[in-house]
Design a protein that fits this description.
Chain A is an alpha/beta fold. Chain A contains 13 helices and 12 strands. Chain A has a 6-stranded parallel beta sheet with strand order 2-1-3-4-5-11, with helices on both faces. In chain A, helix 5 runs parallel beside helix 13. At the A-B interface, helix 4, helix 5, strand 2, helix 6 and helix 10 of A face helix 4, helix 5, strand 2, helix 6 and helix 10 of B. Strand 2 of chain A pairs antiparallel with strand 2 of chain B. The structure holds a DNA duplex (16 and 16 nucleotides). Chains A, B: GO terms for molecular function: DNA binding. Chains A, B: Pfam families: LacI, Peripla_BP_3.
Chain lengths: ~325, ~325
DNA sequence: TTGTAAGCGTTATCAA
DNA sequence: TTGATAACGCTTACAA
């Protein structure tokens, strides 16, 4: 891409203004002129410089997204939903992964300078940068964190489903529980889930830390836990941790369900295919991303100016891992 | 971000050229002047507009990446390696997912207009667009496809490892095979793998199609296959398909290994944790991404101008799924 | 050591 | 219906 609007104008024998009008389809253009212009555009294979357009329009036509990493399907799914809708709306997507990275502050600020709006997961961006962005009016939507003034927040319902899940486990007759994946920051999804189950299970459940919320760390943490005590049910903060717990149980020769119940969260693809299939809370990940993109669009175009705080509903999906269900799948 | 270099200059009582020099640290600036400028920058909280900088510098300081989707860890891992190194080099990353999308041509062209260089997976970008990009000299690196004139190509070794794998299976004494995940385009990784195993196994192996290379489609395809015939070994085009095959085998009551051998490709995290653990070919996915970013940097900065075609080495990882290995893990 | 001014490639206003 | 021309926000010769 090297040819500019000037060369097109010259070739077509018109001014650059006319070329611009023709291409954008706004101002009036005589149809004979239009044809000359289009011909020149065609011949020169002209594409307007994105930089020139953006500078003049005063917008990037691009969105950013900040996530910790892409381990596991959760962030990936949200990202795909986000990118798809963003593309529909004519916006590109710039990504920023913060996990294990130094100078996150600068990276986020740089990213913010390249986009019209930002989707930020939980607390992946430093509070002061967030404050700054809110301050300057940058359109922002946060996913998986508590509401914040001056920005949209979007999340799936956690506490009510947590109670539902806890209730179901009580119905199975369990009395001793552990929550695998202790919350790291307050107010995010993992924390809300923990608060929810604890509200029902009270002293009968104890939070156990994992490193990250991955299969590996879930496996390690579960192994350590199960070697020194035997809760009857392991409520995991997400499906990946739960898959890790399943592996640990197998390694220790514990039957799931039977010796141990395990539950997850999110309903990632692997949850259905796990052995045993995971009881979990389904969260509409793709939709989270899609909605975030639309919300951002509203904010950017000015179709809306007051922040929205939305909570999507979830669904308890009961499968095999949480215990024996007598009248299941009659033949 | 609303304050411009003019306001800073005015406040500091200097010209915009001096502000620019100070901030970029190139031209000479008296230290007293520098301080005045920095003070003004501080007070006004000035950040140079990315658009202005890019337009003047004639570069985006951004890279693009084109992939089909992000299902499964392969693309994700490459993406993470890519983004990490790109960030190190001061470049942002724009993504484009093409799966199930219409107007891919336009999307790729638009993306190309926003970046200094592009990583493209296999054949995810239409050939004519690719030709056009090569034509105009856009720095390009392709991952997982056959060498192409005018662009870097980068891939992991496939055929030699395929032979190695096939040989190992022959050593197990198998005589009837199936290759799950028939190649869709010629020249990509999946095709090379197929060519490699077929070179060794000849007529003893037959290619079986899956939809996409996912756990679900692998499961479906394996189920259909195993219901009508019983190869002794299932060579899968990647680990996800292999995981699906494992599920299908379990569903049919086939023991793996024993009744059936299954192998994968890539060595994703789940391969190690699968039951049985997957025999597979390890491919350095993260490094693929990292190298692509560096290669692009060389091309963009002009440190190199002739295309490179690099093949990274892989490793056969023998685990349990390919058959019984007598003297394994002595206690 | 500093400032002036010419780009960089568009869009859009205002006259003609 | 068209064309000058002023933004948009910066970098960087070139002069001073």
């Amino acid at each position: 891409m090297d040819v500019t609007i000037y060369e097109v104008a010259q070739r077509a024998g018109v001014s650059i203004a006319t070329v611009s009008r023709t291409l954008r389809g706004n101002g009036p253009v005589a149809s004979k002129t239009r044809e000359k212009v289009l011909k020149a555009v065609e011949e020169l294979n002209f594409t307007p410089s994105r930089l020139g357009v953006s500078l003049a329009e005063g917008r990037h036509a691009a969105n950013g997204i900040v996530f910790p990493s892409l381990s596991g399907p959760y962030y990936t799914e949200v990202l795909l939903g986000y990118e798809e809708v963003a593309a529909e709306l004519g916006r590109s997507v710039l990504i920023l992964s913060t996990a294990g990275r130094t100078r996150v502050r600068d990276l986020v600020k740089d990213l913010a300078g390249r986009v019209d709006g930002l989707l930020i997961f939980g607390h992946t961006a430093p509070d002061d940068v967030v404050a700054e962005l809110v301050q300057v009016g940058m359109p922002l939507v946060f996913v998986s964190r508590e509401p914040l003034a001056g920005a949209d927040t979007l999340r799936s319902e956690n506490t009510a489903s947590a109670r539902l899940l806890a209730g179901h486990l009580l119905d199975h007759g369990y009395e001793h529980f552990a929550y695998l994946g202790a919350p790291l920051v307050s107010g995010d999804d993992v924390d809300e889930r923990w608060q929810g189950v604890r509200a029902v299970l009270g002293g009968a459940i104890e939070a156990v830390a994992t490193g990250q919320y991955t299969v590996e760390d879930g496996y390690d943490a579960a192994l350590r836990l199960l070697r020194r005590q035997r809760p009857q049910a392991l409520v995991c903060c997400d499906d990946e941790v739960a898959l890790g717990a399943l592996l640990a149980a197998e390694e220790l020769g514990l039957a799931v369900p039977g010796d141990l119940a395990v539950t997850g969260w999110d309903d990632i693809m692997a949850a259905r295919h796990a052995r045993p299939a995971l009881t979990t809370i389904r969260q509409p990940m793709r939709e989270l991303g899609a909605r975030a993109a639309r919300a951002l669009d509203e904010l950017i175009t000015g179709a809306r100016s007051t922040p929205n705080h939305l909570t999507l509903t979830t669904e308890l999906v009961i499968r095999a891992s949480c215990g024996i269900h007598p009248q299941e799948e009659p033949p």
